[in-house]
Design goal:
about 500 residues, alpha+beta, Amidase signature (AS) enzymes, eight-stranded mixed sheet, about 15% strand, globular
Amino acid sequence: MPSAPALPFQTAKQLAAAIRKKKVGCLELLDLYLKRIEAFNPELNAVIATDIEGARKRAKAADKAVKAGKKLGPLHGVPMTIKESFDVAGFSTTWGDPAFKDHRAERHSLLAERMVAAGVTLFGKTNIPLNLADWQSYNEIYGTTNNPWDRSRTPGGSSGGSGAALAAGLTALDAGSDIGASIRNPAHYCGIYGHKPTWGVVSPRGHAVAGTTVAYPDINVVGPLARGAADLEIAMDAMAGPDTVDGRGWTLALPRPKKKTLREFKVAVLLSDPNAEVDRPIQDAIQTLADFLGKQKAKVSDTARPDIDTAELNDTYIRLLRGATSGRMPDDVHEQAARDAATLPASDISYFARMQRGNSMSHRTWIRLNEKRHRMRLAWDAFFEDCDLMLCPAAMTTAFRHDHVGLRHKRTIDVNGKKLPVVDQIFWAGYAGVTLMPASVAPIDQDADGLPIGVQIIGRPYDDYTCIQFAKLLERDYRGFVPPPAYT
């Protein structure tokens, strides 16, 4: 039986249990993380804002509730940070844009409200890239966040501060958002757990730069990041469900998984794709996992696939993704996108061409792409009649070195000895994202440089808890979170 991890690296579930059993105090635990932030955050720059006085006051009140024997929430007294892009009363919500650096939120986002209602001590915010639009987390206001496994590398993005803070033991729980793997990518790069919910399951109210939008965006979701798979389940229990408007007409009832062991699962395994070649160490790690699952008597297929042209899926995703984010583009940038789209030949299928077509497409084009998307959803649904889950990469490589030079779509990463566009890996975000499906990421290995490798666990719509259950079983039977050595 493995020994329990050191206190800063325990899961939120373990910490909540320790608080209920009075083995650790709420204020004691908060101060532990604050001391670690003081010691380690200057070199990581993961936590970019804190409310120490307010958090200590709330932690003291949480300790009094424990002593008084009051009914406690599932995460009572557990310290939590949250991605900068969520409104938290009194904190800035800038999305890294200097134009909004003086904005202060007047109230919590709905997700923050629900996590506080579950008992967390919300004490700070974690870093992001400008407009949440990178797999690196850097911006003019807060600077660059480093990966605790190798500070010369990115922790991922756009929830990169969340991933780094959790991996380094600076917080017990975090929440992020995901339209282009922004939860899944940092989980993979930092060796932690993350869950991208089914679209529509968790309300994003209050997840907007300076309160500029209130509409539910296409593809984008908000969800949890953690050091343990069970924490994803507890957090989803707390944050999922409609807002007050939609809640007048419907309630959420996500099915609970019936399978209790790995051998009960039927899984498909995908190691790479022509649209986004995957580095060999990641392919090998997922294949090793597949071999292990086979030895556990799980049904494993390396050929089962949804009846979808992945090139069409990728094109549809990129254009819908860019369409979803085009609303906050300045007029002059949007007009340039329209000019580019009008002059680029139809044969140009580069990322830039697809991006500009998506940025400037008509509503008629969007409707046609949405029809393609929903036909793909039906193809995925047919696939899930025979398979419970799809296991695949979360990204093309492990965490890459910081590279802030030039435009993102012109940067490259090394894959199997070749320099490939970093934006190619958007495919692994869209593989589940464009069709609005849930996907968890769980750590399964490390490469030769000691960098974490995660597996993406994709389920059918609303089978969020099945994805998380599989991650829990991997954590129990295969591999769990491992702290980066420099922070233990």
